[in-house]
Structure formats: C-alpha cells, structure tokens
Amino acid sequence: MAYRRIGIDVGGTNTDAVLMQGTEVLGWVKSPTTPNVTDGIVTALHELLQQTGAAPADLHGVMIGTTHFTNAVVQRRALNPVAIIRLGLPATECLPPLIDWPEDLRALVGRATYLLPGGHEVDGCPIVPFVPQDVERVAHDLKAQGLTEVAITSVFSPVDPSQEQHAAAIVQQIIPEATVTLSSEIGRLGLLERENATVMNACLRHLGRRTVQAFEQALALVTLQVPLFLTQNDGTLMRAAYAAQYPVLTFASGPTNSMRGAAFLTGLADAMVIDVGGTTSDVGALVKGFPRPASLAVEVGGVRTNFRMPDVYSFGLGGGSMVTPAPLRIGPQSVGYELSRRAMVFGGDVLTASDIGVAAGLADFGSRQHLEALDPALVQRCQQAIERQLAESVDRMKLSATPVPLIAVGGGSFLVPERLPGVSQVLRAPHYQVANAVGAAIAQISGEVDQTMSLSGHSRDEALAHAKALAIERAVTAGAQPDTVQVVDVEEIPLTYLPSNAIRLRVKAVGELRLDR
C-alpha cells in the first residue's frame, strides 16, 4: 500500500509543504514563514489540503524539517542553564568544560561545572574507579540550586557508557524532575566536541519539548491525527518524542532534506547539489543518495561539535539577497520572508537577486514593469557576480577536478545558469522548488553504531556482524519496517596502537518508515 504523507520544511523565508503518495507528488505549496513558526505550518497545511482535496483521514504521517533549534543557538535565545558533569579526573583537568565556547554563550549556559574522577581508556579499561558518592554530592548541590538540565560526559564513553549511565541514575534518584543528556548517546569519540554537543542538547531540551508540542498543536488545528516525525541531519527521521529529547540531531537537517529530495526527484545517487533559498545557498555532495558526511568537527553558533553532520558549504546568496550597485555587492543581507513586499519586482524599493533574475529573463513572476528603469549593464554585472559565487562554491566542495553533474533545487535556483565551470550538466527536476519538503516526506528511518571493540577472543567478522545486527535493531526500534532495513554504510578503523587489537566500527542501517496506524 502506498501511504499518503506530508513533508514540511520550515525555512527562514518560506515554509514548504508537499503531499506524496508513494513516489508520486500529489501537490505542493509555498507560503511565507511567519514570526510564529506554528502559524506558518498551519497556513501551509490548510493550503495544501485545500489544493489537493485530501481528507485528513487519508493521511498517515507528517514529517517536518526545521531550523528552529539551530537558530536558537545562533541567536542565543530560549536556552536553559545546564549543570555539566564530566567524569574525567585526573586525565582532563587541564581542559575544563566549555573552554572553547564563545563568552556570551558560556555565560548563558554554563552555570555549574563539575569534574569528577572516572572515564575509560580507548580499549575500555577504567582510568580510575568511579565514585558514586561524588555524584551524590553533586546532585544534592544541583537540587539546592534548582538546576534540572544535566549534561554528563565521560572519557571514551562511546566505548563503555556504564559510568555515564550510573551517574545519570544517581542524579535522577535525587532530582526526579531532572532531564539528563548522556554524551554516549549524542556524539562520537572526541571528548571536547562530544561534550559540547551534549551540553548544547541539554540547553535545548526545554525548547525541544515546547517546539514539538507546538507542532502537534498545529496538526490538531487542521484535524490531523497522524504520527509526527522530525528530520535529522543524516537524512533520516526520528519520532517527535525522540526529537524533543535530542533536538541537536535536527541541526543542518534543512540542507540534508534538500539533498535527499534532489536525489529522489532526479534519480541520481552521486552528484553535487545546490539549494538556493531566499536567504542562503547550500552546496553539498551526494554519495549513494545521502549527503557526504563531514569528516571534521563542525561549528554551530561558534561551538565545535562532532556529531554526524552533512558536509555542506553555506553562503549568503538567495532570491531575497539585497543588491548594492556601487561597489557591487550581492548579499549576505536578505529581505527574507518580506520578499513579496520589499522586492522591486513586487512594487517594493529594495533591489534583490530576484529582481536581477526576472530582469535577465531567468524567471517570470511579479511585474516586469517595475524593473524597466534597471540598467542592463548592472543586470549583466550582477549575473556575472552571481555565477562566480556559484562556481566557486561548487568547486570548493568537489573532491576532484573532474566535471560532475549539479542538481539545482530551491525557490531561488533560477539564479543558477545552465553552464558552470567544472560542472558537466545542470539538472532541474520536477518540483525542484520544494525539494526540501520532498526530502522530508521520503526520509527513511536509520540506526547507527559507532563503537570501539576489542578483537581479543573475537574475530573481525564476529565484531562486524555484531555491529551490523545492532544497527539494524536500532533502526527497527526507531520505527523502520524490519523487512526493508539494509546496512548502507560500514567504516572500520583498525586501532593498531592498542595492545588489545581493537577496531573502531561505524555501521549505519536504513529502512522504510512503518506508517500503519
């Protein structure tokens, strides 16, 4: 049975919604994002249901991609103070928590920091014994301060999370109302980046609960009683309740949705993708239908993190980018969701990239009469400047000089010319304007394992089989149909410097979402 589902992507300029049945796009809408994100979603849903004539009872799920949590960190708003517990003495005393955070963000979030004995070596051996009494003392101190958001990190906890789990149990016994985030469930091996991601998640937990409740309320206002999912930054889905617990996993989900949608709409599994929105453009590479992951630490709001993130380059060029004629400058400032009011092509007084596109014949919307006074030489110079920005961004993300196909998506992708240096062909698929919402609608469910395993007493094949089985189990638990789950990525790194002949395994399994109600 081909289930009907709605994909929604909430961007800085537009909220896009698409209705799909199986692989078919039944209808789509684009509506301006409102200051109150929920209102924009409700408007988009109303318009989509009215346009397609779909009844709420015919739908089986709604998938939302949002920049809500990324924006909260970047704009320093709605962040709760966090109690930070690191199990790492004496090994990590020289680098305390939040040492590399911007001062303003550290002042907002890092109210209480505790370093306690504990942690493991990379081969799983304890550095020093875990001391439960120390955690009990800290928990009583937190209770007296009224702190309920707690982030717990231990050295090499992805190898052995037992100390973090023990500490969490103690904290929750003494502070039942506490919400605890464990680093072993968030990031990868690097201590500081993993700790940063854990603290960031903890400070967003309250906002995560409020946001998910607002999304659920939006569905209720249009009488949609269906499962709600949020997209995460590896191109797959998580249930709304899980997203409320781990809001950081939505970081960079917008570009990921666009890239997944581009692969789906064109049928290409390996290509470059550029998503030109109203405010920014994002460039990345598709590898086997999924965004190429970043291999280095990624900064969010000035903070280095190491959880899974797509390798994407973002720059300030979009349909709403403001144009300054002398000296010529396009972006990064944008009129954003006010494009339809402030751009010249709509009768406004601000020259934007959209005005240049319409004047050059690349697009046809608004009224050309408003652009008759534009100097053709200025239009040509702007076109050349836009082409240079686009070509440089694609070249920056390529791994070789060989020309590759480029898929152009997003409402502002009319700015992408038919030919670019280093690009074999520029592809524009049907429904390219809402590829981000399509990417959300077709997203799958994943399970991932990233752990170090000793090969003492085990063969490599046994360790690999165990990791694959665990990844598949996690995908099924997250909501994947068991008969559709496949292992799509395996990475093994021999740790030859360890006496136990250890190996680090990263395994990812992906399956189709189970939507039966």
Task: Give an overview in words.
By secondary structure, this protein is α/β, with parallel strands linked by helices. Among the domains are: 82-205, Rossmann fold (3-Layer(aba) Sandwich), CATH 3.40.50; 444-511. 32% of the residues lie in helices and 27% in strands. The strands form 5 sheets. A 9-stranded mixed beta sheet has the order 3-2-1-4-9-10-21-23-22, sandwiched between helices. Strands 11, 12, 13, 16, 19 and 20 form a 6-stranded mixed beta sheet that branches. It has a 4-stranded parallel beta sheet with strand order 6-5-7-8, sandwiched between helices. Strand 9 and strand 10 form a beta hairpin. Helix 1 (37-52) packs across helix 6, helix 2 crosses helix 6 (191-221) and helix 8 (253-266) packs across helix 12 (435-441).
Query: Any idea of the CATH topology of the domain at 82-205?
Result: Rossmann fold
Helix content: 25-40%
User: Can you give the mean pLDDT?
Assistant: 87
- What is the correct CATH architecture of the domain at 82-205? 3-Layer(aba) Sandwich
CATH class of the domain at 82-205: Alpha Beta
Q: Poorly predicted ranges (pLDDT <50, ≥5 residues)?
A: none
Silhouette = globular
What proportion of the residues form beta strands (DSSP E)?
25-35%
Cα distance spanning the termini: 13 Å
| Extended strand count | 23
Continuous helix count: 13
The whole-angstrom Rg is 24 Å
Biggest sheet strand line-up: 3-2-1-4-9-10-21-23-22
Structural class: alpha/beta
Largest sheet: 9 strands, mixed
